[in-house]
Amino acid sequence: MTRLPARRSVLAAALGVSWQQRLLHHHGVPAAWRRRRCSGAGSKAEDSSSPVTPMLKHLMFKIKATGPITVAEYMREALTNPVKGYYMHHDMLGEGGDFVTSPEISQIFGELIGIWYVSEWMAAGKPKTLQLVELGPGRGTLTDDILRVFNQLGSLLNKCDISIHLVEVSPKLSEIQALTLTGEKIQSELDVTSPVYMKGISKAGIPIFWYRELQDVPQGTSFYLAHEFFDALPIHKFQRTEQGWREVLIDIDPKAPDKLRFVLAPSATPATEYFIQGKEARDHVEVCPDAGILIQKLACRIQEDGGAALIADYGHNGNKTDTFRSFRSHELHDVLIAPGTADLTADVDFSYLQTMTQGRVATLGPLKQQEFLKNMGIDVRLQVLLQNSSDTAMHKHLLQGYDMLMNPKKMGDRFNFFALLPHQRLAHSDQKANLQHSKSLSTSVAGFGELVWK
Ligand code: SAH
């Protein structure tokens, strides 16, 4: 039997061993993980056929009426147009869909995130209310796993008034989230002016509210979570030319009237002036203003009301160039083919997010997923589950899930964790704010340093 380090065995005890049975039935280990390969804009289609989807028709009418559109407008329409947007009316997650995410691979992932929130809630002085706010909850799996941790740690949290707030634009996914979290189908609210469009009660009796936008979520001490959310927000693309910076736009291909192509704006636009920094060294830049606005809102809320935000996604620190890509059935797909039927995504620029906090909050990370999960005690959790099962299929499942999450060639190095915290949270640690290279630094914040369970 492996002997566990003292602090970590406390974590193992806190989590208990009883969930191992559930693991077997829970998430299958997928054949491929999300966005497993990267290629540039206009990458070659694996399938050369180019169906004229309703979304393509809609975009073509728009371009014919008003001229070429920005990549941001293309992405926003293709993903979240209320009628034909990719996210709106089908379930794209999992083996049968287009991509799979960490919470869908292993429930250990959500368990450790749940521990992170309890740890931060304790560090915040155990406030009497705890709003858990998830942006883009997918199938609701991550929140469900977190709620099981809260339930397991009921003796710690029993005096705390917990509520769940989900920010989701997709009617289809919110229906699935309701089923996952409450076990029931929930009717939408009849009052269309209400910011809450659905309400339910979790299996353990915790109230859950659904909103379309963060600004609709009530103020108050809140703990925010965004897992693979920021990468779905619309980006603008810019190219350096001999004449200066030009925005990349999308137009109809004159040689193939049912196809789209990338073009460069003929002259500089206000966007080029506004979004490109004077000292920019790259030749191609992607900027996501929606992400900047969202981060500002989160930073203001945390500054005013306390709490924390944990953002996990693939991304870079302001050094990558062309990361816009599309996925369908776990394969890379041409970004301009059959819009509305495939996922569109771009790497998150964490340095931009950090700049957009405008110093209102402290930031930690980005830290690689494998390091974050290791600090959170994933090895202990795995050992406990392995030791408590004699089932070989279960062992295989646990080990495959662990490998997928932790292997640097799979999700371990590609995904990053980034946190926003009130300045006073770090006031007593040796670094006060904006830690860019937390790998080499120690901090009292779980995940970014080793978990200390008090
Ligand atoms: N967090 C989940 C799902 C990631 S997929 C997981 O890791 O498994 C992206 C999620 O964000 C989906 O739920 C999608 O419907 C939602 N989403 C995308 N754009 C959104 C927007 N602009 N506002 C709110 N939700 C959005």
UniProtKB/TrEMBL annotation:
It catalyses: L-arginyl-[protein] + 2 S-adenosyl-L-methionine = N(omega),N(omega)'-dimethyl-L-arginyl-[protein] + 2 S-adenosyl-L-homocysteine + 2 H(+). It holds the Pfam family Methyltransf_28. Its EC number is 2.1.1.320. It is found in: Mitochondrion. Keywords: Methyltransferase, Mitochondrion, Transferase, Transit peptide. Gene3D superfamilies: 3.40.50.12710. It is an enzyme of class 2 (transferase). Its main location: mitochondrion. One of its GO terms (cellular component) is mitochondrion. GO terms for molecular function: protein-arginine omega-N symmetric methyltransferase activity. InterPro entries: NDUFAF7, NDUFAF7_sf, SAM-dependent_MTases_sf. It comes from the Eukaryota. One of its GO terms (biological process) is mitochondrial respiratory chain complex I assembly. Arginine methyltransferase involved in the assembly or stability of mitochondrial NADH:ubiquinone oxidoreductase complex (complex I). Acts by mediating symmetric dimethylation of 'Arg-118' of NDUFS2 after it assembles into the complex I, stabilizing the early intermediate complex. PANTHER family: PROTEIN ARGININE METHYLTRANSFERASE NDUFAF7, MITOCHONDRIAL (PTHR12049:SF7). Belongs to the NDUFAF7 family. This is Protein arginine methyltransferase NDUFAF7. It comes from Chelydra serpentina. The lineage of its organism: Eukaryota, Metazoa, Chordata, Craniata, Vertebrata.
